[in-house]
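Q: Given only this backbone (120 positions), what sequence would you predict?
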């Protein structure tokens, strides 16, 4: 694996780990809907504490899914779509590979079925 592929793989891994948690997915959905919000604003809409929201945002930030910008005493978070886009492209490539494999299996099975019919 090249360094670039390894870096991409690690980025995908961190995104998938971050998205595995339902609270983090909710945070992303809220941020996508609001555009930007503080941890306090987000915590008001979730059944977790502000401190828990901050920890979840740190995981999302480390995965490249959100970014925080300090505005006075507040940190405003917003979605960063680049890491999610890269993960979606990886998943689409994986799905396309499986589609090709399944199409080949289907072709082989249909050819065998046709050959069997021809020998009767």
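A: Predicted residues:
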């Amino acid at each position: 694996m090249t360094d670039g592929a390894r870096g991409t793989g690690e980025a995908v891994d961190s995104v998938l780990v971050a998205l595995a948690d339902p609270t983090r997915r909710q945070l992303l959905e809220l941020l996508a809907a609001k555009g930007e919000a503080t941890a306090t604003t987000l915590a008001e809409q979730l059944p977790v504490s502000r401190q828990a929201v901050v920890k979840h945002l740190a995981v999302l930030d480390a995965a490249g899914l959100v970014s925080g910008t300090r505005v006075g005493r507040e940190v405003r978070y917003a979605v960063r779509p680049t890491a999610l886009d890269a993960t979606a492209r990886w998943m689409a490539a994986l799905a396309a590979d499986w589609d090709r494999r399944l199409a080949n299996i289907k072709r082989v099975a249909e050819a065998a079925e046709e050959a069997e019919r021809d020998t009767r």
